Amino acid sequence: MLVSPSNPTAGRVIQAPRLESPGVPEAPFVGQPAPLFALPDADMEIFDLASALASHHVVLYFYPRDNTPGCTRQAIDFSDHDGDFARERCIVVGVSPDDCLTHADFRDHHGLSVQLLSDEDYEVCKLYNVWRSQEVDGVMKQGVRRSTFIISCDGVLQHVLHDVNPRGHAAEVFKLVQQLNTRKFNANRQEHGRHA
Length: 196
Prior knowledge:
Blueprint: E1 38-40, E2 46-48, H1 49-53, E3 57-62, H2 69-80, H3 82-87, E4 90-96, H4 100-110, E5 115-118, H5 123-127, E6 131-136, E7 139-144, E8 147-151, E9 157-162, H6 169-195
Parallel strand pairs: 3-4, 4-5
Antiparallel strand pairs: 1-2, 3-8, 6-7, 8-9
């Protein structure tokens, strides 16, 4: 269930803006503000993206299901890099349609430190346009497109990666976050130099 972020009436479902045409919603792209949301995590605590962005960059990754080989590898790799991301002032958050209890079992079984969010109604998946029809063994099925969004602390999408390979993905994302911080550091130095 998608709940209203930073709202005293949290727990209410908020609807994404309706489109004029019934087509597929446009995917958020680099340079746009990241769509805000709040979802429950494995401990049934609400994660509010707007609050997290107040002090951190956020790596938001969408994955199909807990306990599949690729999803497990991806979650373990992100967890193994947890300290590296923390040093870069970055939080890693995984989203799938699994419920909170399934996330808790998945986290505890594999010793994961990455925060896992439950999007049982697919609302955030749809908001980020990763809930897609795909052909599996000749049959069209709905599912999550494995995707990662890197959001800077000013709330802007810096990188959008779709159809990622779980192997080595966490290290690739970490390099992009480091580059983001290096760019911001250099921009601040140039700005400071102009005012000195």
